[in-house]
Amino acid sequence: MSMFLDTAKIKVKAGNGGDGMVAFRREKYVPNGGPWGGDGGRGGNVIFVVDEGLRTLMDFRYNRHFKAQSGEKGMTKGMHGRGAEDLIVYVPQGTTVRDAETGKILTDLIENGQKFIVAHGGRGGRGNIRFATPKNPAPEISENGEPGQERELQLELKILADVGLVGFPSVGKSTLLSVITSAKPKIGAYHFTTIVPNLGMVRTQSGESFAVADLPGLIKGASQGVGLGTQFLRHIERTRVILHVIDMSASEGRNPYEDYLVINKELESYNLRLMERPQIIVANKMDMPDSAENLKTFKKKLAENYDKFDELPQIFPISSLTKQGLSMLLDATAELLAKTPEFLLYDESEMEEEAYYGFDEDAPAFDISRDDDAAWVLSGDKLEKLFVMTNFDREEAVIKFARQLRGMGVDEALRARGAKDGDLVRIGNFEFEFVD
């Protein structure tokens, strides 16, 4: 089994806030002691941190659930509960984090040590010391802790490389990578020898350096899932320059120019913006018979079919086996990299506009529906949050919750919908009778 994994779906759950406490001062010589219950502690966040030592998402194959600790409950003497520690989850450089439900991108983690909170912990519930008023100096009210955020995430690793090697299987990409870098990819005289992306660092004779990724061979129909399909096409999205490796000897019986057109078509079909990246054509296997003649034919066809207003891509004849022409290729690649800017990987429509972790102020406070058993069902982020944070073991808290519902207009809305005295009203698993 390959130890390379570049996609994963996981669930994260931030810690709940600790419950507030109901307590009173009971010292012997302190008359009319008053409330003394402290607040609960904050729940732990779930935080992604980039670790440059990681190369794949393999750690997420078997561990798909990440849950932070909840905050401590409030204590007597007005003491607050301890806040929970954040849960740190390490991810490799180049990890894109997407909300699995909405499809929106939360963050793109590319810098070593970069942090991002993917799930926020709930705040602690207030103790009864917070609810004391001149009218009610000894309240028996406390709040439950706020639930921590829970969400499902889609992780996608796109390796960080300046240059990407693309081309049909067995055109010599892995051999080229092994010659120009210290990488040791698997090399074999059969298709799809490379089944995972390989990464290596190149240093030119003039001192420039850049990262090169050798991507598994593409074939016709790859953008629709043929062969290795789109499994590794995502890794070329971060590159700034593409080295299009072509077997100029036509040893596989294919036409080099047709190969060039097919691979570009697959890149365009996968993501039109990949065609914005400058390409250098690498005419490989020039040590083989017929390669020189095939190169002449290739250049002629390229010139005939290229838009006269566009600049023809550079072509470098090389032989990975004999190391012919490599220094010129690497110098030209470094020069092209120096003048090629970073490409925007995602547009604004793909990004989550704002990381907001409470209820939406513009959304309706509640919604009313009817269940199969004729019960009225109340839902809505704001209402459900109030419900979860209400301590129903305390009568005063229940009265306060009923007052909050009335203030939100729930009673009037139920009457308008036809609710009558004694009708069943349901919030989650909690049921009560409507009193008109």
How would you portray this structure in words?
This protein has 436 residues and is of the alpha/beta class. It is 18% helix and 21% strand. The chain has helices spanning 173-180, 256-270, 291-305, 326-338, 381-388, 395-408, 410-416, and strands at 7-13, 46-50, 65-67, 87-91, 95-99, 105-109, 115-119, 150-157, 163-166, 198-203, 209-214, 241-247, 279-284, 314-317, 367-370, 376-379, 424-427, 430-433. The chain has a 6-stranded mixed beta sheet with strand order 10-11-9-12-13-14, with helices on both faces. It has a 5-stranded mixed beta sheet with strand order 3-1-8-5-6, with no helix packed on it. Strands 15-16-17-18 form a 4-stranded mixed beta sheet. The longest helix has 15 residues, at 256-270. The N and C termini lie far apart (66 Å). Mean pLDDT is 87; it is low at 190-194 and 222-229.
List keywords for this structure.
single chain; 436 residues; alpha/beta; 6-stranded mixed sheet; 5-stranded mixed sheet; 7 helices; 18 strands; 21% strand; elongated; hydrolase; GTP1_OBG_dom_sf; GTP-binding
Note the beta-strand portion: 15-25%
Order of strands side by side in the largest beta sheet?
10-11-9-12-13-14
**So what's the overall shape?**
elongated
How large is the count of helical segments?
Answer: 7
Number of strands: 18
The topology string of helices and strands comes to EEEEEEEEEHEEEHEHEHEEHHHEE
For the record, give the distance between the C-alpha atoms at the N and C termini, rounded to a whole number: 66 Å
Mean pLDDT, nearest integer?
Answer: 87
Fraction of residues in helices? 10-25%
Could you list the spans in which at least 5 consecutive residues all have pLDDT below 50?
Answer: 190-194, 222-229
